[in-house]
Amino acid sequence: MVSTHEPRECGIATFTSDLANALADVDPAIRVSWAAIDDEEPELAARPEVRWRIRQGDPAAYERAAVDLNAADVDIVAVQHEFGLYGIWGEQFDDYLTPFLERLRKPLITTFHTVLPAPSSTVFNAVRRLGRRSDAVVVMTKRAGEILEQTYGLDPSTLHVIPHGAPPVTHADREAMKARLELHGRSVISTFGFVDPRKGIEYMIEAMADVVRAHPTAVYLVLGKTHPDLTRKTEDAYRRSLNDLVEARGLGAQVQFVDRYLSQAEILDYLHASDVYVTPYLDPDQITSGTLSYALGAGKAIVSTAYAHAVEALGDRRGILVGFRSASELASAVSSVLDSPSLKAEFERNAGSLGARLTWPTVATRMSHLYRALARP
Fold first, then answer.
1. CA 73 → CA 30, 229, 375, distances in Å?
2. Is 184 in the same domain as 330?
3. Which of 6, 62, 127, 159 is the most exposed place for a label (fewest CB within 10 A)?
4. Is the same domain home to 348 and 365?
5. Separation in Å, CA 56 to CA 121, 231, 328, 375
6. Burial level of 106, CB count in 10 A (0-12/13-18/19+)?
7. Quick check: helix, strand or coil at residue 258?
């Protein structure tokens, strides 16, 4: 795996670790090791699965990794691709993977975690170069595959739609979980994941002023810490703005922040306690959301803005789609779920039916088959 690795607090690191753990369960003969993209994580040195380290932002480090992988007992190289990990954003995208691709001699599978439908010329060239060099390309939604074929000209025979995984969920009593989390008697609305301005959390906070008029026991939980990169750059200005908004609207009892990096078990506990899960994200082109996959896996009633992944996932009455940057639409949709136990139960049932096909064992089994099909004898 060419990816970030825990303990780095990064969605790609979490995804890859979850996938590796699931692979170990479904196909124990697969051995997973990392060429870990790091930003000076000293803890990585003590992790035996991390065999190589790529210093993020050092172009030569990516090329050295390819040389090392060529010489190693590795059958498949799996790149987990997110643009910021493999180059520098600016007016142009400076792609550090070019020498890596020129040097690498092993079979290559690339998973694209972001697919931009209207790329700049440098992004277009980087994606096309990586996609054409890859023996297989994995995307997590049908729409992402369509974009890679139609916009970037990738060979459709190399494209594989394998969804983002979610933890298998066992039934938990919602009211008992609320009591355990000190939320007894509350109607719980939640959002989890790294906090940053792209999440649109301020619009759901604004919506709570209307929600609580009809549902005075409602509480909105913002679960997760600010993304570490954003904290370094802005000293957490966005979170401070959210706190200021809560205070200005007098919502201190109706909006709660759990400001820490949550374990998977903690995330599932909060999802079990939730009546409505909300993703008020701002980017209509967001092609993958791990938090949305978790909520589907947990069988939640979901309200979401109409970004690409949500549009694809929430059809067939699995949730409600609303417009971007609209507190009033968020409030109306959340209230409609809280007003109708039968509607909430229908959404939960339909989301859970899809979520059962997103579990990590199912996803890992499909990935295992793909790895084995492409490994050279």
1. 12, 34, 12
2. yes
3. 6
4. no
5. 23, 18, 42, 28
6. middle
7. strand
CATH number at residue 319: 3.40.50.2000
Task: Outline where DSSP puts E strands in the chain.
Answer: 2-3, 34-38, 50-55, 77-81, 87-88, 94-95, 108-112, 136-139, 159-161, 187-192, 218-223, 255-258, 276-279, 302-305, 319-322
**Could you tell me if residue 185 is left (phi over 0), alpha (psi between -120 and 50 degrees) or otherwise beta?**
left
- Judged by DSSP in three states, 3 sits in strand
Q: Do 147 and 182 fall into the same domain? A: no
Does residue 168 have a cis peptide bond before it, meaning omega lies within 30 degrees of 0? no
Residue 46 has pLDDT above 70, yes or no: no
Cα 206 to the center of its chain, rounded Å: 25
DSSP H or E stretch at residue 295: helix 290-297
pLDDT tens per residue across span 2-34: 999 988 888 999 999 999 999 999 999 999 999
- Beta strands 276-279 and 187-192 are parallel
Residue range(s) defining the domain that contains residue 198: 174-355
- 289 and 263 in a common domain: yes
In this structure, are 218 and 87 located in the same domain?
Answer: no
Q: Are residues 216 and 308 in the same domain?
A: yes
At residue 90, does pLDDT exceed 80?
Answer: no
pLDDT of res. 40: 64
pTM greater than the 0.70 cutoff: yes
Please tell me the chain's helix, strand, coil percentages from 3-state DSSP, rounded to the nearest 5: 45, 20, 35
Q: Coil, helix or strand for 262?
A: coil
Of the candidates 27, 3, 23, the residue with the CA atom closest to the CA atom of residue 14:
3
Least confident range of 105-114, 121-130, 368-377: 368-377
Contact by Cβ (8 Å): 228, 189:
no
Answer yes or no: do 243 and 348 share one domain. Answer: yes
Token pair, residue 223, equals 């679960």
- Judge whether 207 and 331 are in contact, CB under 8 Å: yes
* Distinct helix (H) and strand (E) counts, the chain: 15, 15
Task: Give the total number of structural domains in the chain.
Answer: 2
Phi, psi for 15 (deg, rounded to 5): -55, -50
